[in-house]
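Hi support team,

I submitted a single chain yesterday and got back a structure, but I'm not sure I'm reading the token output correctly. Could someone confirm the output below corresponds to the sequence I sent? I've pasted both exactly as they appear in my results page.

Thanks,
R.
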Amino acid sequence: MSKMRAKRLHVVLRAALFLWPAAFLQAKEKKEKPPEPYAIRVTVSDNRAGRWGISLKPTDCEVTGMRGWRFNRSDSVAPEKLRAKFRTRTRKLTGAERKDDRIPKLEAMGLDVFILGRPDHILEVKASKISVTFELRELLFGAPIEHDSGKVRVRRIPNPIDLTPEKREYDYVSVAVDAKRQAWASWIEYTDKGQRLWLGRITSNGIGDVYDVTGRAGRYFSPITAVDEGGRIWVIFGMEEKGNIDLYARNLNAFKWMRIDRVTNDPAPDINPSIFRDAKGKIWLVWQSARNGNYDIFMKHVHDATWSKEYRVTNTPENEWSPAICANKDGVAFVAYDVYRGSDYDIAMRKFVNEKFADAGPIAQTPMNETHASMVMDAKDRMWVAWEEGPGNWGVAYPHGNGVPLHMPRTIKYKVIDAGEEKKAGDLTANFPYDLQGRNEAPRLAVDAKDRIWMAFRHLSGGLTSRRTEAESLVPLWESYVTYCGDKGWTEPLPLSQSEGRRNQLPSISADKHGSVWAAWAGDGRPCWEKDVRPVRCTIHAASLEAAKGAAEPAPESCESETLAQKAERRRPTHYGTVIAKKEYRLLFGDLNRPTEISIEAEAGWGTYDDSFRYAWDAGGLDFAGVAENFAGGKRLSPWRRAQDAARVYSSPKRFITVLANWREGPFPVGSRLAIAESPSASPIGIFYSDPRAKKVDENDAKKLWEAIQKENKVRRLSIPITPASKLGTDWSSGASPVEPVVEILSGAHWSYEQEGAPLAAKPGAETVHEGFEAAGFVDKALAKGIKLGFVAGSGPCSTNCAFTGVYVEEVTPKGLFDALVARRCYAATDKIILDYRVENHFMGEECAISGKPEFYIRIIGTGEIKELSVIKNGKPIHTTDPDGVDIAYSFTDEKAEAGKEACYYIRVIQDNGKMAWGSPMWITAK
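Hi R., thanks for writing in. Yes, this is the structure output for that exact sequence:
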């Protein structure tokens, strides 16, 4: 080897030895930094609606998933081709809205894309003829990439981790973060054999270890996940045992389950639990329970796995709802809760000091409707409280009055309280995009290591249209978002992918002192733009929000102060009793037809179970209410389970009765009916189809329903025809059945169906006639055919304080209520008019034979001056009088009664204020 070659080899070897460590370190660095998950949302906009196609071209990175956002069934995603196609839709705008440049002319739509890559990897997005190319490092939370004046917008969103990969039904998720910065979530699974309760550890790759909390199927409610000072992972949950719902708790300590603690023990259901972990790791728990016939708030805390005694937070004749709790560094706890004040809810607060509770002043007390508070304490011991605010006159008469639907658009308010002094109050949406400045609800607060206040909430996106007047309803499509309040105010909210669903699919958010922030949420995959928004499958997801801390922050926002309103007098129910044939009966007021957002065709104004039963307990002052949902016959189990759960949770022994019903919608002349069940364990009875594929309803549907009810030997059921003189009514050709003892003669949102031309009766062309008009369905036609029916009223999905059913019961139980309906001891009214009438010892609803002429004894206690009292015989008034008064006792004898011939009689009452009542008929044969 020549000297020159040797020298060159020496130089090469020295260079290799010098460069080898750097190359090794670079390889090691690359190995230590594997590809990271990214999630983005691509949205498009234009002046006109039209078809859009989106295609993706990744360089180095990998597209692991694609999902349409607010897609219709006609829109499509092809992940294998990295393409999606969809049609955008214009908004329906008023003249003034068309001139408002803030309002987009198209409904927001787009594509969620999930990517695995490194910051320097590149993704190209083509939307029709527009192309956007960027490195993944350019994707910053709160700083979207826009192209062509915003026609194509790419924004980073939290990366969702699917906690439920198996194709089953899940819901009600709660998340907490432990000292090792690991997230834990609990949730409920729906199975054919009941519900199961799970706890899972979340990793960056998905769900890790999963633990069965109780080891068996059962009935579980509202699970909450928490981590205490000792690192124990707690699951606090409602569970039904022997017909009673109590709160239980179990903790996972060093990956081993400890015993199940029974936290409450009372015959009344213990519901709506809420927790707070204080600075020392103690867990505080509050909930509501109807211990004395009305809802009060109770509290416990747990320290070193030992539960304290039970404390009563409130003890008033009013109902208190939805408690929230937080505690400062000194161990002083503060409990906020909703209380009804006559025409709206306010948020009150009490504090716990030296083992005693004392008033701590109101949180929100205005003429608006304020509910559902969430509370946290920051590092400076300042209390942050957020709540939702809606229109006043909640639950007041609607649509025949000055009230509003149960679920009108709401917004979120918040305030900061420092040492008892209010420092800030306002609307957090001042810096939100226009579309997110309204229809926000259910705030959930958390505070992180840097004292940032995080909030998760639900936003009503709508479905058919997203911009309507507030008086109109929307198809209920809700989505979850998160935001945080930094030094410069609240950041632009980040959407949580796959969170479309019901309003009550609430997000959960948790943070720890080390800086970890996690959110968990549920969604049911329902389509956006169609009338039929049936859920597809309920799934749950979670996401770390640590990367979102770098979100761009807005300018500081201004504050606004609140004004106090004078408290309105709370409306209370009026109880009345009577004696019939030496038996004592109590009059109950209620509503058997109260659908909610669970129903297939639900609109946003229908409200949630919480709205419905708050109305029943407070604004309506009712004694019973029916959970009446229209989804029977479907293959999905979980919606019916939720209806069953609501019937269990909101009942109260000897105070409030819940009735489980499925709303069976059939066209005229088959008719729509409620199939009501005495026990919440009942299964739905769906519509019978002669051609299931074409959804053609069997003309013998009513008879098949009756046959199914009569064959039932586990649960007593009844059938109730509803809206009979409408396009969803009946011509009564099916005849009579002992399991169909009553008819809905009054629909609160519409009209009475007594007889054509009668006061308040439905008529052709009237805007509020439910699905049209059919004269053959009036109740007088059924009575003329010899079908014996008592009278009840139903609110339907929207009306409030316009339809009441009065029922005379021997006992305040489901059995007592059903016994009274079977006996037809009931009547319908547009207000809480007390109506009591009889002939001798025979009461309304009875068939009887008497000696001599029938003499009617009538007692009326009105809610206004009685204008007209009529006795109707065989469909015609035979006596009408103006009794002049509010509380009257009256008698009338039918001198023209024919011996040996049965006649049908009933009483109709009209007040000066237009309120009416219809007493169930009596069928009397005079000897």
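A quick pointer for reading it: Residues 11-25, 463-473, 552-573 have pLDDT under 50 and may be disordered. Let us know if anything else looks off.

Best,
Support desk
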